[in-house]
Amino acid sequence: MSSSTITTTLARLRQTFDSGKTRPIEWRLKQLEEIERAMREHESDFADALHKDLGKCRFESVMTEMSFVEEEAKYARKHLRNWMKPTRVRTPMMAQPGRSYIEPEPKGVVLIIAPWNYPLSMVCAPLVGAVAAGNCAIMKPSEITSHTSAALAAILPRYLDPDAFAVIEGGVPETTELLEQQFDHILYTGNERVARIVMTAAAKHLTPVTLELGGKSPCLIDKSADIEVAASRIAWGKFINAGQTCVAPDHVLVHRDVATQFVEAITRRIKDFYGEDAEQSPDYPRIASERHTARFADLLKGQKIHHGGRVDVAKRFVEPTIVLDPPKDCGLMTEEIFGPVLPVITVDEMHHAIKFVADRPKPLALYLFTKSKVLEDAVLNRLSAGSVCINDAVIFMVSPELPFGGVGNSGMGRYTGWYGFETFSHMRPVMKRGFRLDAPIRYPPYTEKKAKLMKLVR
Which string of DSSP letters, residue by residue, matches 5-59? Predict the structure, then answer.
């Protein structure tokens, strides 16, 4: 797409926002309803695109992409009227008589830059928050998942107001051109390297940003945990979408007393889920590109592989793999894995695991499996993460009541549910006063008596 087309599109959306068209609740509710309808009516089209891009089966595509977006839009429609209401706050005596309140207002025209791992939901879930808040939006899907990008570009304009929303396809040149433009908010989901580019571009216009990144999300397993259940939940959370999930368990730190039991249990779960040969399973996805697939061949060189390890670059296939006690300075332990390889690290005591996590950048998600309230409190008090999930993996993403976002290197800002509405809104404070009782205490000349009275009325 040419630079002039992007500029023209942005000007059209800006004109729409300035007209006030997006502010009424009726318009917002209609757009949210249309997002739901698009997910339902084109479920097959989206599922087909996701299968071509990532090898996802229809069940997984519906669960993690279309239904996720549909439920997010339903939740926003249900609560939007309350979200839009002004919130009364106390007015200090000094400003009496008067009333004060906080009133959400839309920010304007926002930019949503999506990743390739969940190429539909990471466009449309943030879009729900932007729509609910009354904004116009430009969406930039990932060029790596080209079939899903094309489906979004073809389908969404048939449902959403074309004067308020646009899908811009393309690669790095188009994204670079978009970042040259002035937006009122940018939400980027992806890696830390590109996030720095986005922040640098946003800084030129003093544009606020939300960054949803990743990191090495650790999973701690105490000897008190139910190992069989833990293995099932971790295997599901790790290998869904072939491990290409920003909140997937990146590595496991397991107590030595149950390490062998856990490794055997999760190996059984992998076979239960995907059979003896995961390449033949209709439920096991593929890696997004050959370039990303080749990376795993390098990461696995010289490692102690307990299960799996097979990589076929041409087929974009990486077998579900368990690696035992990799060196702390190898790629598996210094890079975000973002794929179906799970290092399992044995620790003698759980406080060693806590220190291991504390010494590293704050992750997007932190998982703990334990029956010990003492250990649970120790982990919550000592460790920071974007989200914490106790005795399960990834499942917290299904709750619209919980915000999704990172901390430190794993991101900044949050969305989903109310938090998406808040992110794309300016929470404008308003104080309203009449003309009666204009107390002279605040006006010069200032006296000792006025100073004493001021302390009383603050």
Answer: HHHHHHHHHHHHHHTTTT-SHHHHHHHHHHHHHHHHHTHHHHHHHHHHHH---HH
Please state the domain count of the chain. 2
Tell me the angle at which helices 256-274 and 227-239 cross, rounded to the nearest 10 degrees.
50
Q: Which of 124, 219, 246, 389 is catalytic?
A: 246
Point out the residues of the chain with pLDDT beneath 70.
Answer: 1-2, 458
Q: How many helices (H) and strands (E) does the chain have?
A: 17, 18
User: Structure pTM?
Assistant: 0.95
Place of tokens 């603050």: 458
Residues 128 and 265 in one domain: no
Q: Would you call 212 a catalytic residue per the annotation?
A: yes
Catalytic pick from 212, 319, 336, 422? 212
Looking at the structure, do residues 290 and 371 belong to the same domain, yes or no? yes
Cβ partners under 8 Å of residue 331, min gap 6: 298, 299
Residue 452 has what pLDDT? 87
pLDDT for res 401: 96
Give every strand in the sheet of 425-433, ordered side by side: 87-89, 98-106, 425-433
At 432, is the secondary structure helix, strand, or coil? strand
Residues 417 and 319 in one domain: no
DSSP helix/strand/coil, 344: strand
Note if 34 is an active site residue.
no
Separation of CA 458 from chain center:
42
Phi, psi of 392 (to 5 degrees): -165, 175
Instruction: Classify strands 218-221 and 311-312 as parallel, antiparallel or unpaired.
Output: unpaired
Amino acid at 341: V
